[in-house]
Amino acid sequence: MNSLFKRLPLNRVAATPRSNRRLHTHPPPHPLLAIFSRLCIEGPFTTALALLPDLAAAGLRAGPVSLTHLVKLCVRHGTASDGRLIHRYVETHGSLSHGSGGGLYVANSLVSMYVKFGLLNDALRLFDGMPERNVVSWTTVVAALANADGRKEEALRFLVAMRRDGVPPNAYTFSSVLGACSTPGVLATTHASIFKVGLDSDVFVRSSLIDGYMKLGDLDGGRRVFDEMVTRDLVVWNSIIAGFAQSGDGVGAIELFMRMKDAGFSANQGTLTSVLRACTGMVMLEVGRQVHAHVLKYDKDLILHNALLDMYCKCGSLEDADALFRRMPQRDVISWSTMISGLAQNGRSADALSPNRITMVGVLFACSHAGLVEDGWYYFRSMKKLFGIQPEREHHNCMVDLLGRAGKLDEAVKFIQEMDLDPDCVIWRTLLGGCRIHKNSNIAAYAAREILKLEPEDQGARILLSNTYADLRQWTDAEKSWKAMRDRGIKKEPGRSWIELKKQVHVFIAGDLSHPCSGAIVEELNRLIGRISGLGYAPQTEFVLQDLAVEQKEDLLKYHSEKLAIAFGTMLAMEGKPIRIMKNLRICGDCHAFAKLVSKSEGKTIIIRDPVRFHHFQVGACSCGDYW
DNA sequence: ATAGGGTTAG
């Protein structure tokens, strides 16, 4: 290293002293390592991961800083198996024994990664095998155990063990372990240790202390810790307010909430949830309503919405509860339980016990998507018998969907013909959906004709009917239908796809190769088709609805607008970013298969929005589950 | 590389 230093021209040494100092202590890194370090910091994560075998093959060892960054990226974007991949690399290439704490640094980040992926046992196994451990290592596992269900005792045992190991706990450790103190005795002992090492003024430790006392029902203990504080933050306020609200002192909680606002803090979701709980306990409907106004800006917070729902139920305003429940963007078990209990508690036990109209739609829908034909029939018939709910249009529609999806198209037709209601367009379109999945053109044509009887101007149905005739090779009928469309002034809209790249929108029209990059796009398209042929792709020419030779059909398919846009996207889209495409028509089956396979072969996410729904293509599958 | 507060029912 010294000789390298000496060989540098003198003037350069003088001109750039800083870079020379670096040169003096570190030789320039191998280019592969340099690329790897950059990828570990800036991503894309998958590329960094893919480089690990190359590093190993070249006999290079990644540094602890890069590896730690990589683990962080893995927690953010990756999966547990990516994490294991990194762990295996690190273990087999000796990176855990980097000098001056480097190995410890990497090992700690791996332990933390396992914890974040919920793999507590893997974390503990790694921890056990570590040659050295510091506060961070110990704290990571203590916190993980304190947060895991039923492992609080172990967390406390680890605290004892770390001290015996000569590692003093710090504020991080104590704030974690306080959640594991489940008896007043243990809490008092822990509090005393905290006091002894002078960590009782730390805000994190304090909020945990307050929470610990309150959860054990010691309101005074919690209050004392709170009162002694000079500087408080929002979480400390939230802890004390939550403690009062949970222990049934709603008035105390609201008083503290007012003081909090006077002290210049503004409520967040946690605060509002506790305040609502206080309102619930005290039956303060009007205060609760005021809080509702502040809840609106957190429309994705399920916990907060559940608390609001419970407030309305327990304050006796079923109208508000009902309206909220219907409008909630998501509902979980707690939302449902809250609503059911609410109905029961307000003397509407009948409503609580019997599924209502909407519940039954959900039940039938679930049967339909799970292919549970028999169950679906059972519930449909039980509705009237057991629950006294008259099946309405929506329930009949669910049954058509259920039968259609299950491929029982004849049964679905029979069902429609025999039901008490007059079929409407919605039901016929549902039937069409089933035909589409199971490629039943005869029934599709029937359904389309029925739709046109009801709505002669339905463009979609007319196009569909023409296409279905083409499908059935009934070219005369197809021609007649096209003519009917032309007479009505409906023109077949050409397929168009839009893709935005680098703030510019590119439009592709089916069969149109006038884009300035068309040459390269076609080349890319051929490359993609070559790659996915290996994965089983074959052009599905049945999606071409004209009477043409196979080769011509293949060409038409190949230049569908979304394929052009996808090829353009795989050429130019940023690494790691999904390809986003918008389409004016619904995607055809061939392009759907194409997109699925490309997402797999290129390792890219493709998102296509058609006029009705989104398709998220990822590693060979689509979010629509092949039904659209 | 490690930390604290919020929802139903029983």
TrEMBL record:
Residue ranges of the TM segments: none
Gene Ontology MF terms: RNA binding; zinc ion binding
Secretion signal, residue range per the UniProt entry: none
Keyword entries, A-Z: Repeat, Transit peptide
One GO process term, biological-process aspect: RNA modification
Keyword set includes Transport: no
Keyword check for Protein biosynthesis: no
Identification of the protein by name: DYW domain-containing protein
UniProt source species: Paspalum vaginatum
